[in-house]
Amino acid sequence: MILLDLVVSFLASIGRSTLSLLSAAGRIALFALATLSQLFRPPWYPAEFGRQLLSIGYFSLPVVGLTALFTGAALALQIYAGGARFSAETVVPSIVAIGMVRELGPVLAGLMVAGRVASSIAAELGTMRVTEQIDALTTLSTDPMKYLVLPRVLAAFFALPLLVGIANIIGVMGGYLIGVGTLGFNPANYIRNTLDYLEPSDFTSSMVKAAAFGFLLGLMGCYHGYNSGRGALGVGRATTNAVVSASILILAANYALTQAFF
């Protein structure tokens, strides 16, 4: 009898967790639909969109660039060390380029921007919720979804492909610097091998991933900030949840898009 009660309690906890997960997914989906529906209804706020584009895109360049540079350099060293076991050191340029463009560039840029931007958006909107600034916008006949949420989501959607494109170039450059300066590759041969093995589908998949990741991290930052709990604790939880959920969704979307493309 005791064993049966334990089994029932365990299954009930799984059921509650599943229902909670599905409920959260439904709320996020409805929030996303409500955000996208604002695209087709005036008024629009281009100045706010431009400000968010600058904040999300331009000011994320240093962290994304440094991450890509050191990742490309470390990747070249690792591939060279592994390839040396099979006398395949010459594959370093092509694998660094393909790995950065297809996978590491979009994912690492997405995760770094999620840590910087999703948390910032959630904290900003959460503070506005706590201090009733969002309610004040509604009182002034300004739709908070259109004025606060849509510009941030759109800015992240458009900024991340630009950041990923730059990250891909810097990451390949990091591999080039290590390959030529440390591993003894001929500069012309390194560049030729890099260009010969990259295909248009690699760049297409990279940009599609970047746009999807930008939308997800912007959406998660806005969703958790907009629905933040009251007080400092609520804002803190919203910030944490925004980064965690954005990172998980980026990794899940990366697998799904990789499966679709390749």
What is the molecular shape? globular
Residue-averaged pLDDT, rounded?
A: 90
In terms of DSSP E residues, the strand content is under 5%
Terminal-residue CA separation: 52 Å
Number of extended strands: 0
**Secondary-structure class:** mainly alpha
Low-confidence stretches: none
Number of helices: 9
- Major sheet: size, sense and barrel closure? none
Give the fraction of residues assigned to helices.
over 70%
One letter per element, helices H and strands E, the order comes to HHHHHHHHH
Compute the gyration radius: what is it?
A: 22 Å
Number of domains: 2
Give a quick rundown of the structure:
85% of the residues lie in helices and 0% in strands. It contains nine helices and no strands.
Can you walk me through this structure?
- The chain has 262 residues and is mainly alpha-helical.
- It folds into two domains: 41 residues; 217 residues, no CATH class.
- The protein is built from nine helices and no strands.
- Helix 4 packs parallel to helix 8.
- The longest helix has 39 residues.
- It is globular and about 65 Å long.
- The termini are far apart.
Which descriptors would you attach to this protein?
2 domains; single chain; 262 residues
What topology emerges from the helices and strands here?
Blueprint: H1 2-37, H2 46-56, H3 61-84, H4 92-130, H5 133-139, H6 144-181, H7 187-197, H8 200-226, H9 231-261
Helix pairs in contact: 2-6, 3-4, 3-6, 4-6, 4-7, 4-8, 4-9, 6-7, 6-8, 8-9
